Amino acid sequence: MTSNIRRAIRRPRSLSAFVAAIVALAVGAGLATIFGQENQPVDFSHNVLDAPAPVAGAVFGSGPALHPGDLICTTPFQTSANVDTDCEKKGPSNETSIAINPTNEDNMIGGANDYQLGLNSGGHVTETIHSRAHVTFDGGRSWSEFPILFGSAYQATGDPAVAFDAAGHAYYATLGFRFVGPTNAQNPDVLVANSGDGGRTWASVRVATGSGNFGSVGDLLDKEYVAAWGDGNAIVTFGDFRLAQKGSFVSARIFSSVTHDGGTTWSTPQVISGNLDEAFVSVPVVAADSRIYVAFLNTTDLTTGRDDYEVVEVSPSTGARLFGPVKVATTIDGFTDYPLAFGRQTYQDSLFRTWAAGNITADPTNAAHLAVVWSDMRNSVLPAPGNPYAATTNSDVIVSQSFDRGRTWTATPAALKLAGDQFMPWGAYDRRGILRIGLFDRRYDAANHMYGYSLATEKRAGALTFTTTQLTTELSDPTTGDRWFAATVNPAFPFATTFLGDYSNIAAMPSGGIAAYWTDMRQKACFGSRCGQGEDAFFAIAP
Description:
- By secondary structure, the chain is mainly β.
- The strands form twelve sheets. Strands 3, 4, 6, 7, 8, 9 and 10 form a seven-stranded mixed beta sheet that branches.
- The longest helix is centred in the first third of the chain and has 10 residues, at 17-26.
- The radius of gyration is 21 Å and the shape is globular.
- The N and C termini lie far apart (43 Å).
């Protein structure tokens, strides 16, 4: 079932035996396709179906019949500093997105890749991946899960993104997957649901349609994200990877679509990445004056494989590109900058996939002030060994800012030079115009194995110097003991995590402070005959 539907990051031909062995392990279950043969180095595909299966041998089932507004479950009321938002507890959750209702900040919605697993008496495992709305109405002390229904055609949904507009109308974007057999799926569609009651009930719309199957001619849509503003206005952006025979790479461009009626109808998607055709992982943001900017990565240097962060301005009315692309900076994320596991970038003593991607955020006190946040290996030892168990890595969070609506950017981006690896950052300006960054942070462990979730806070507006505090009250160890997405490549690290999701994020609260939402591994999870560390969507508030 879910396996490795992906473009691999291309390395020089002299791959080590270790990496070759890992790649061989990766092609074990079902949908194993490595797109393309030409010199295209980008690890483009980062959706829920190109992640490994949480339990080997699982097959897709149908899951229980649910209706809009059905309450699936509710967590206990929690007064702890870290709150578990998962109540279904039938499988892992990861890749978290959070939004706060500006008309009632006690109402928040979290999105996640939610896996539902079942085990029958014969030992057969069934799985569904149906994204849930994790909803709170008491400021995050208790959370309820509600279904988001996109029709029976979709056997799986994933890659969540959530937003509220200024009137308190909610939007939940995701990808929808339709299977055409036990081991293949159509290229996903971009779906957006909307809710007028704080996240209890949802109506859904297909905004863009993928074409072809994994590994065939077609359009593979990937990594959508949503932003909203005003009363009934929202934009969704996404990547379109055009594929030729046998799924070989042709181009990668960013598209946008807008709604002005609360998500009932959406405009025809249009290209916004200009003449760039190696573009992927876009995130939109709405500035204080309702101008909209979109940041994305583009592989400009095919020799090193490094990407450039680019920014465009688009029309709030139509979603059309108005200005750009403008280069923000080059990210240090190329062929020899990271160790590899399963053909994808990772960190020291680790197997889970990662990348440089972050986001763009806008200052509510100054409509011309923007920041782009990402992580890369500029302060690590380069070139990195291909074998992660032979590497010592030091990934850092990097920031660039603009004071002229994205026309020019910091000449030398600022780095948060912390010990160990920091990765998957997400930036948000708080109501004072202070940049806050949520990040996975391994500096709490001298071995550079366990991570906490941290919040970096700018010392003064525009300074790009930060203090960093830990939000997690317990650390997570992705190097060993995972119950779900697990593989053993080095016997000293059994059941190492192979998938944590591709992002987690934060959101600024209207009254001040930050809500953080991340993938946490502190809790024990048991399924079948084996127990290990779980993956759960955790929440915290920071002043």
